[in-house]
Design a protein that fits this description.
The complex is a heterodimer of chains A (about 300) and B (about 240). Chain A is of the alpha/beta class and about 300 residues long. Chain A is about 35% helix and about 25% strand. The radius of gyration of chain A is 22 Å and the shape is globular. Chain B has about 240 residues and is mostly helical. Helix content of chain B is about 70%, strand content about 0%. The radius of gyration of chain B is 19 Å and the shape is globular. The chains are: A alpha/beta (about 300), B mainly alpha (about 240).
Chain lengths: ~300, ~240
C-alpha cells in the first residue's frame, strides 16, 4: 500500500535568508506498509515525522528517492481516492459551523449519502450538540474531534493521523481507540499511520512501530509477537502466585511486584482474567505493557537497539 | 462547494455593493449635469456604450475583491491541507472558485448596466456590446490574481490593486515614462495590464468598429497569467 525507497527530503531556505542553508528532514527513509497494517511512527521532535506524512499526501515532493501510495504518486492517489488526514495543527475556516464544515468536506470528497454519514460521524465523535457552533468557538479538543470527523467521513482506505490526541481528554483518548479499531474492522485492507508522542496509545492502536530520528528509520518493531500475543502489566492487591501462573501461563513477575501477562486479544485477556478473579485474586491495575515501547524507544535512541 | 464559497464571500459581496454604489456616483454618464473637461466628448453623446469603461472598472475590482487570497490564504493558514486530502484536484477546487468569481463579476457588470440606466435615465437604452470590456477586465485581473495568489504567501490583492491603479490615475504611467529609460518603460508596459488595449477597445466600441486586435491582446494577456497560475498550482508544494 505504501512504499518509500531511499527518500530524502531537504528544505531550502528562501534566497533572501542567506544564513538559512538547507535542512535535511528525511535522510534515506525506506519503508513498506502492507494493506491491513496499523503503523505507529514515533520519535523525538524534529525527527521528520510530519514531513513523512506530508510526503504521503503529495503535499511535499521528495528531493530524491521514491514514494508510492497504492502504486501511484501520492498526489495522484489522494486526488483519486482521498486520504483520511488529521494534521498536527488543525486549521479550518473559523466562520464555518461544525455541520457546515463537514458538509463542505463531504462535498469535496463527493461522499455518498453525505447527510447520513455526517449525522453518524457527529454522533461517533460526540459532536451532536455542537452542530451549529462556529469552528472558531470550538475548544481545542472539539476542534480535534472535528478534524477526526472529516478524516473519517469518506470511505477511505488510508488514514494518516499526525498527533490526533492533541487536546483530547483521557475519556476521548480511550474512545478514539475504539473508533480507530472499528474503522479498521470495517475493511481489513485499511491502513492506519499514527504519529504520536503518546506511546501507550500508539502501542494500543497499532501493530507495528517505526522509530524515526534524525530523518532516518532507526528501528521497526512488531508489537504483536509472532504468536500474535500482546503483553499486559497486571498489578494485584492479593493472589496466590500459583493462581496467576495458572490463569496466565508464562506470566513473569517484574521488579515492582507487578506481573507481565500475555494474551492474543482482549477476549482472551478477559477470559483469563475472569479465571484469575474466580480464584479469589483482587486486581489493583491492568494496562498494556506500554513501558515496553517506551523502554525500547529509549534503547533505540541511545543506539542500543537497531532495526531488526 | 458553490454554496460554501458564496457564504464565505458574504462580507466581500457587501464590499462589492459599496464599490458599485461608488462607481454609480462616479459614472459621468449617469450624472450629465457634471462639467465635461475641455476637448472630451460630452458624456450625453456617448450613449449607453459610454458607461462600458465603468463596467470594466467594476468587473476588474470585483474580480480582485472576490479572488483576494483565494489560494494564498488556504496555503498560508493551512486550510488546503485538509481540503486537498479529499479526492479533489487543486485545479478543480480553485478553478471553480475562479469561475464563480468571474461569473459574479460579470453579473455585477450586467446588473450595473441595466439597473444603472434604469435608475439614472428612467429607462434602458441598450449597450450590450459594452460588456466586452468587463469580460476582458475579468480575464486580465482574474489571470493576474490566479498567478499572484498561487505564487505569493499574502498580499496578492494589494499587488493587483496597485496594477489596477493606472486605470484610474493614468498620470502614474506618465510619471513612470519620465522616471524610467525607454527600454524599461516598454518592459513595464508589457508586464502591466494592457491599459492601452482597454482604451482602444473602448474607443472602438464608441465608434462602432470594435478593436478586435486590442481585445485579443488583452485576452491573451489574461490567459497567459491564468495559465501560469494553473501551472503554479500543479508544481508548487502545499506544505
Amino acid at each position: 500500500m505504501i512504499r518509500l525507497a531511499e527518500v530524502v527530503k531537504e528544505y531550502s531556505a528562501p534566497p533572501w535568508r542567506a544564513a538559512g542553508g538547507r535542512v535535511r528532514a528525511l535522510d534515506g527513509v525506506s519503508l513498506e506498509v502492507a494493506p491491513g497494517t496499523a503503523l505507529g511512527i514515533v520519535g523525538p521532535n524534529g525527527a521528520g515525522k510530519s514531513t513523512l506524512i506530508r510526503l504521503l499526501l503529495g503535499y511535499l515532493r521528495p528531493t530524491s528517492g521514491e514514494v508510492r501510495v497504492g502504486g501511484l504518486h501520492p498526489r495522484e492517489y489522494a486526488e483519486r481516492h482521498g486520504v483520511g488526514y488529521v494534521p498536527e495543527s488543525v486549521s479550518i475556516p473559523p466562520r464555518w459551523t461544525v455541520r457546515g464544515a463537514l458538509g463542505a468536506f463531504a462535498a469535496l470528497g463527493e461522499v455518498p449519502d453525505a447527510g447520513d454519514r455526517i449525522d453518524r460521524t457527529l454522533e461517533m465523535l460526540g459532536l451532536e450538540g455542537l452542530e451549529g457552533r462556529r469552528v472558531g468557538a470550538l475548544s481545542k479538543g472539539n476542534l480535534q474531534k472535528l478534524a477526526l470527523a472529516q478524516a473519517l467521513l469518506g470511505p477511505r482506505r488510508l488514514l494518516l493521523l499526525d498527533e490526533p490526541l492533541n487536546g483530547l481528554d483521557p475519556v476521548w483518548v480511550a474512545r478514539l481507540r475504539d473508533v480507530l479499531a472499528a474503522w479498521r474492522a470495517e475493511d481489513p485492507e485499511r491502513v492506519l499511520l499514527l504519529v504520536s508522542h503518546n506511546l501507550p496509545e500508539v502501542e494500543r492502536a497499532v501493530d507495528r512501530v517505526a522509530v524515526l530520528a534524525g530523518g532516518r528509520i532507526r528501528a521497526e518493531m512488531e508489537l504483536r509477537a509472532a504468536a500474535g500475543e500482546r503483553a499486559w502489566r497486571l498489578e494485584l492487591a492479593s493472589a496466590a502466585d500459583g493462581a496467576v501462573a495458572e490463569a496466565f501461563p508464562g506470566a513473569a513477575r517484574s521488579e515492582g511486584g507487578a506481573w507481565t501477562v500475555r494474551a492474543r486479544d482482549e477476549a482472551e485477556l478477559s477470559r483469563r482474567l475472569a479465571a484469575l478473579l474466580g480464584s479469589g485474586a483482587r486486581v489493583r491495575a491492568l494496562e498494556p505493557a506500554g513501558a515496553g515501547l517506551e523502554e525500547r524507544l529509549h534503547r533505540v535512541l541511545a543506539g542500543e537497539e537497531g532495526a531488526p | 462547494m458553490i454554496p460554501v464559497t458564496l457564504r464565505d464571500w458574504a462580507p466581500r459581496l457587501l464590499l462589492l455593493a459599496l464599490v458599485v454604489w461608488a462607481l454609480y456616483l462616479l459614472e459621468p454618464g449617469f450624472h450629465q449635469h457634471e462639467a465635461v473637461e475641455a476637448g472630451q466628448l460630452p458624456v450625453e453623446e456617448l450613449g449607453p456604450l459610454g458607461i462600458s469603461a465603468t463596467l470594466s472598472y467594476l468587473a476588474g475590482l470585483a474580480t480582485i475583491v472576490l479572488l483576494a487570497g483565494f489560494v494564498s490564504t488556504d496555503r498560508r493558514r493551512g486550510y488546503a491541507l485538509l481540503y486537498l486530502s479529499h479526492p479533489v484536484r487543486p485545479l478543480a477546487l480553485y478553478g471553480l472558485r475562479w469561475a464563480l468569481a468571474a461569473a459574479a463579476a460579470l453579473l455585477a457588470a450586467l446588473l450595473f448596466l441595466v439597473f444603472g440606466q434604469l435608475l439614472a435615465w428612467g429607462g434602458f437604452r441598450g449597450g450590450w456590446p459594452g460588456l466586452l470590456l468587463p469580460a476582458l477586465s475579468v480575464l486580465v485581473y482574474g489571470g493576474l490574481m490566479a498567478t499572484l495568489s498561487a505564487a505569493l504567501p499574502r498580499g496578492d490583492a494589494w499587488v493587483a490593486l496597485a496594477l489596477f491603479l493606472p486605470t484610474f490615475f493614468p498620470q502614474l504611467l506618465v510619471f513612470l515614462e519620465t522616471a524610467l529609460n525607454p527600454a524599461g518603460y516598454r518592459l513595464l508596459l508589457f508586464l502591466l495590464p494592457p491599459h492601452w488595449a482597454f482604451q482602444e477597445v473602448y474607443a472602438g466600441l464608441l465608434e462602432g468598429a470594435p478593436a478586435w486586435g486590442a481585445a485579443a491582446y488583452a485576452a491573451g494577456y489574461g490567459l497567459f497569467w491564468l495559465g501560469l497560475g494553473a501551472l503554479l498550482l500543479r508544481v508548487r508544494e502545499w506544505a
